[in-house]
Amino acid sequence: MTALEELPLRAELRGKAPYGAPQLDVPVRLNTNENPYPPSAALVADLAASVSAAASSLNRYPDREALALRGDLAAYLSRSGGVQLSAEQVWAANGSNEVLQQILQAFGGPGRTALGFEPTYSMHSLIAEGTSTSYVVARREVESGFRIDPAAAVEAVAEHAPDVVFLCSPNNPTGTALDPDVVEEVYAATAGMVVVDEAYAEFSHAPSLLRLLPGRPRLIVTRTMSKAFAFAGGRLGYLAADPAVVDALRLVRLPYHLSVVSQEAARAALRHADDTLASVDLVKAQRDRIVTELRARGYDVVDSDANFVLFGRFAEQARVWRALLERGVLVREVGLSGWLRVTAGTEDETSAFLDALDAARDEAG
Ligand code: PMP
């Protein structure tokens, strides 16, 4: 057996732990913000037929530019995002994590800095680390509902002069939507790239920030099919930006990074978008139910525009996490002392979560 320390690993990776939400086989999994509704039978049949048809040409590389898929994604954003977009303004990869990595490969890297507003999505800092990009932090405070104040954001930009600014709306793990002023003011204050991570946009009460793209060539809005599209297993993330940004990402992407199977499967999923996205309203109703029910029980609950809710505060959130797990309910410890995050599931899953939480509280006395 070789220990990791024995390998000539890069110094900055020594002693680090990989990203890892526990993947446990329990009845109620509410820890990774997936859509609880499986794909429809019609989608499964369409996807199987499309992949089957494509299988006869798997000896050939896929379309390196994924143009048909990018066209379909542009059409979806154009009809839902309040701005007209074409395939040249859209880029896709294996999950939005890969999109974010490509952004830092192109615009971050050694000697460059990315700024994030924490608590936020933990992969932003991990991808910075993996691409040797310095990562600096400005804080979101619980007292202000984890919102970002435009003036404070501009100050953080002035202080750190970042090459890339990460903004996340709705923000994971707090569920907080971003005030458009923050994007406008940060964009005006920086010479770097501004990345708005909209992984959870479809669940928000607020409109998408895609409408801020025209006239802002350094602005990037990233999206994913993992959440609202119920396609986490399909691994398809994408972005909208100026075509020049897409040209930049082409310099760092691996050739043929999106397989024929991925492209065909995603296109099939997009053909059934209206059907799949109908589940978003069901999830939002459970999200709002969780907020109401937890507040009625006296918990601190952060307003949520996403498909999850941050709640607390606990003297020892790890104990509550374990008590829920013992009752078959998996939620997320997000590294925020006193808080836990729960994903909105089906009505039954939400009931199971609330019941388990009540039982855990009764037991703790
Ligand atoms: N951005 C945010 C804010 C997320 O929460 C996630 C998934 N947890 C992602 C990006 C990445 O999603 P994926 O790689 O599945 O597209």
Automatic annotation (TrEMBL):
It catalyses: L-histidinol phosphate + 2-oxoglutarate = 3-(imidazol-4-yl)-2-oxopropyl phosphate + L-glutamate. Homodimer. Residues 28-357 form the Aminotransferase class I/classII large domain. This is Histidinol-phosphate aminotransferase. GO terms for molecular function: histidinol-phosphate transaminase activity. Belongs to the class-II pyridoxal-phosphate-dependent aminotransferase family. Histidinol-phosphate aminotransferase subfamily. Keywords: Amino-acid biosynthesis, Aminotransferase, Histidine biosynthesis, Pyridoxal phosphate, Transferase. The modification N6-(pyridoxal phosphate)lysine is found at K227. Its cofactor is pyridoxal 5'-phosphate. Pfam families: Aminotran_1_2. Pathway: Amino-acid biosynthesis; L-histidine biosynthesis; L-histidine from 5-phospho-alpha-D-ribose 1-diphosphate: step 7/9. Gene3D superfamilies: Aspartate Aminotransferase, domain 1, Type I PLP-dependent aspartate aminotransferase-like (Major domain). The keyword Transferase applies. PROSITE patterns: AA_TRANSFER_CLASS_2. It comes from Motilibacter deserti. Its EC number is 2.6.1.9. SUPFAM superfamilies: PLP-dependent transferases. PANTHER family: HISTIDINOL-PHOSPHATE AMINOTRANSFERASE, HISTIDINOL-PHOSPHATE AMINOTRANSFERASE-RELATED.
